[in-house]
Amino acid sequence: MLFLARMDVNFPTDMDPEVMADFQAQEKEYSADLQNRGIMKAIWRVVGEYANYSVYDVDDHDELQSIFQGFPMFKYMDVKVTPLAKHPNALSYYLRED
Amino acid sequence: MLFLARMDVNFPTDMDPEVMADFQAQEKEYSADLQNRGIMKAIWRVVGEYANYSVYDVDDHDELQSIFQGFPMFKYMDVKVTPLAKHPNALSYYLRED
Amino acid sequence: MLFLARMDVNFPTDMDPEVMADFQAQEKEYSADLQNRGIMKAIWRVVGEYANYSVYDVDDHDELQSIFQGFPMFKYMDVKVTPLAKHPNALSYYLRED
Amino acid sequence: MLFLARMDVNFPTDMDPEVMADFQAQEKEYSADLQNRGIMKAIWRVVGEYANYSVYDVDDHDELQSIFQGFPMFKYMDVKVTPLAKHPNALSYYLRED
Amino acid sequence: MLFLARMDVNFPTDMDPEVMADFQAQEKEYSADLQNRGIMKAIWRVVGEYANYSVYDVDDHDELQSIFQGFPMFKYMDVKVTPLAKHPNALSYYLRED
Amino acid sequence: MLFLARMDVNFPTDMDPEVMADFQAQEKEYSADLQNRGIMKAIWRVVGEYANYSVYDVDDHDELQSIFQGFPMFKYMDVKVTPLAKHPNALSYYLRED
Amino acid sequence: MLFLARMDVNFPTDMDPEVMADFQAQEKEYSADLQNRGIMKAIWRVVGEYANYSVYDVDDHDELQSIFQGFPMFKYMDVKVTPLAKHPNALSYYLRED
Amino acid sequence: MLFLARMDVNFPTDMDPEVMADFQAQEKEYSADLQNRGIMKAIWRVVGEYANYSVYDVDDHDELQSIFQGFPMFKYMDVKVTPLAKHPNALSYYLRED
Amino acid sequence: MLFLARMDVNFPTDMDPEVMADFQAQEKEYSADLQNRGIMKAIWRVVGEYANYSVYDVDDHDELQSIFQGFPMFKYMDVKVTPLAKHPNALSYYLRED
Amino acid sequence: MLFLARMDVNFPTDMDPEVMADFQAQEKEYSADLQNRGIMKAIWRVVGEYANYSVYDVDDHDELQSIFQGFPMFKYMDVKVTPLAKHPNALSYYLRED
């Protein structure tokens, strides 16, 4: 099943730049792993904001919850999740690659 | 470029069922065409709501606007558009097929 | 998996009382069936409002969407869905009967 | 009588991990006790958020208020309470166990 | 137990003045009865709005729900209910008469 | 004239417990005095929240403003005031004692 | 005492222009009378909207409520009232004429 | 031209009382000067809040912006500005003195 | 002085297409005239919505209000106006042509 | 293509004035460069707020995102972006110079 998430990152404005860079590196690695395992189907930056829309394919809410809690930057994020069903007009459930 | 849209449909509750079915058939055809032309990359139903999230790949705001205005049910829809940029953690800009 | 829904009913104030009663009778039957099949785990009235909170146990978003669309009063309802995961402090995932 | 609560936890992002773990352990114990006493009928995690929906069965607002104030993490929580009545379509007031 | 309700009335602007007067007369009678039975402890007009704040003393959510549904103008009202507990600073739970 | 106020208290989560207890003791004394002088007609706790609804009977906005500013915890409070008029359905302007 | 009101007018878009003109003429007369009696101290149009901010000087909420209900267009208006106190920095309570 | 402003003051709760008193004294002087120069036509306290509604008469947005930025407490204020036009029902554009 | 307006158009969904086309033709003419007179400096379509952002250069609120009220579709529009001042970083007050 | 942005700046109230002045100087330089390169077509101050509306002309969301992230004060800003299309009533897509 697919889920759409909007994630807003709220770092303290006085965070040490190295600490921030470290968080971002860990996040990138974690995110790549989710993509390689076919769990995170897409992630996009919301233009102008420190936020993303991302799409997840999981079979279970508990699995999804543990994926979110595993994000290295989870405690700085505000996450809103929308469950998605197949749309009657969709030619395929997943996005079509370019 | 990609854009995320959330579209909420507000039909009058007293709309004739045949009129509604006709609108939906036209909408399905229009939507299929956008998918076949590679413009609409995905469309999902928001669970529980007469609403969708959909993803568009166009080069230009005027083209996108004319696509939205072309939806047969446009006058019954409330559309909110979010411009999307490539995310630094994304392995690819587009969603990955199953 | 469990989902919490809040459903608000918006009948036109000039709806014929018999039509309304008929809708409500159909809704009651549909709702009882969902409960008997173990899909709807609970439904409560929000005090003071023509609204409910209800809990669903389904394996799949498409199944859940077709359940919502099957409600006889669906076109008069505003539905908001929240996916629920097991809470680390819960002794059991489901509610405990009295 | 039943009450639905949504509780959002807002820990300071710089809270010492041991302090946090201690709060969570106390909370878990408190929560288990409420469940064992038949007061807290259910508690679920809102997917993606440090938040829960939980259901309480108490006879009295003062009792409910003292239960909320007793949560070890109460001062970090934002709580919204909705009083629930029996729904005319409900086969039973309480949730049905699995 | 006490509950605070805010009720907003939304009559259609083209309602026949006699129909409206009839609704209001029924409402007044119903409201007086609730006051005489000690259920409605207070009702005030929100200045400038067709709305009230009112206070109810009932033992049970089902009783409260049936009281609200009994209001002759119920289908034209938007009702929001807040459960009230005794305040530690209150000299008495109820309002003090003049 | 009556006014309804909703007051939300926002203490810093790291406030010293003795400082907090001292504030609360002062607040209780101040609040008792207002009740004894017939100014504060009622105060209730909003269940689950560090908030109250309270009712004031004063002749003048300047007097009311100075009452609010006199609350020992005023700088930690968010106050919203609603002016109340006599309701045509009210048997008496004030709440009825138990 | 002074009160600030924001009033938004919501006429049906299909109202007969003569009916509308008649309402507006009555409203103008009523408004002039309130100004001549020193009750309405000011009224301004919110630029771009069919709305006003207006200032009232009355001794009593019941009087203010009956003034609002007396507006010929009252049932088409959404009114929000804010009680105003003397500001410590104000050289005079009332506005200064040009 | 007239403008209505709502200004909310947000002082840190741990501000030194002398620093606060100094800010308030400067603000009072600044405000008196604006009133004496005929720029600030009125200022009122919103009852219960550390906020004001105030009315300005200036010929130009740049002048108004520099007036706002000149407030000694500007960086602690949240300001919302509404442009006001003459109302067709107003007997005079300005408020009438008592 | 410049003002930014956001205008949302809300036509009834059952408006006769010829009536709508006539409104739109009148609106286009009115809008062209405002542009030719140097009053409307820009107008853009909000992508996906029947709405625009537009920029006005007028000396006076009364003039601006009469411009808005002159829009043939005014009664179907929801207009929100923001006064704009010169920005310290702007090389020129007006937009720069391509 | 054009984009409208609203940017709100949230500096900590205890920021060192020299640090702030340095940020503002860098921002001004960055902003001037964007204007000279024809990317930022306009920037205006929202009267009364530490906020701007600005207009950007870029061909691509990734370019726009990197422009926003390049603002020296980016981490203190809350940015909301609206994609703009040509309006059918516009005599030209861009604003007209004075």
UniProtKB/TrEMBL annotation, chains A, B, C, D, E, F, G, H, I, J:
Muconolactone isomerase domain location: 1-89
Pfam families per UniProt: MIase
EC number: 5.3.3.4
TM regions (residue ranges): none
Pathway: Aromatic compound metabolism; beta-ketoadipate pathway; 5-oxo-4,5-dihydro-2-furylacetate from catechol: step 3/3
UniProt-listed InterPro entries: Dimeric_a/b-barrel, MLI_dom, Muconolactone_d_Isoase
Alphabetic keyword roster: Aromatic hydrocarbons catabolism, Isomerase
Record field: catalytic activity: (S)-muconolactone = (4,5-dihydro-5-oxofuran-2-yl)-acetate
GO molecular function term, any single one: muconolactone delta-isomerase activity
Domain of life: Bacteria
One BP term from GO: beta-ketoadipate pathway
Protein family per UniProt: Belongs to the muconolactone Delta-isomerase family.
Subunit structure: Homodecamer.
Listed NCBIfam families: muco_delta
Protein name (record): Muconolactone Delta-isomerase
Source organism (scientific name): Corynebacterium maris DSM 45190
Record lineage: Bacteria, Bacillati, Actinomycetota, Actinomycetes, Mycobacteriales
